[in-house]
Amino acid sequence: ALPRGTGIVTRCPLVLKLKRVKNGTPWYGILSYQNKIKVELESPAEVGDAVAKAQNALAGQGKGISHEMINLEICSTNVPDLTLIDLPGIARVATGNQSQDIEEQIKKLIETFIKKQETINLVVVPANVDIATT
Description:
The two termini are 25 Å apart. The mean pLDDT is 88. The chain is α+β, with helices and mostly antiparallel strands. It has two helices and five strands. It has a five-stranded mixed β-sheet with strand order 3-2-4-1-5, with helices on one face. It has helices at 47-59, 102-114, and strands spanning 14-20, 28-33, 37-41, 70-76, 82-86. The chain is globular, with a radius of gyration of 16 Å. Strand 2 (28-33) and strand 3 form a beta hairpin.
């Protein structure tokens, strides 16, 4: 499970590479960032904390964002071969210790990914809100 919560939870682009492995191969994961830090994960329960720590290292302890990518590779018999990039949702109003231009920062980050022609974009909106005002 990736980190969940209210507000901006995804604060850095997260490249999630799922790789299917042969039966009998144990689950494992590797999280890396800044081209030098590599964390080996031994169980799915470690994923959330590892991602949160990487985000704090890259974007700070507050609610800031970073353009630096976090790479998470998961190898399991129970996943398809698939690569996804999770991006922050657009925040319209700064809260707490967020930068006042948080909306513009996030939009610039998102645009770097959605402008690529070879990308399929999936936008997720909660079902219990008015889409016209989201």
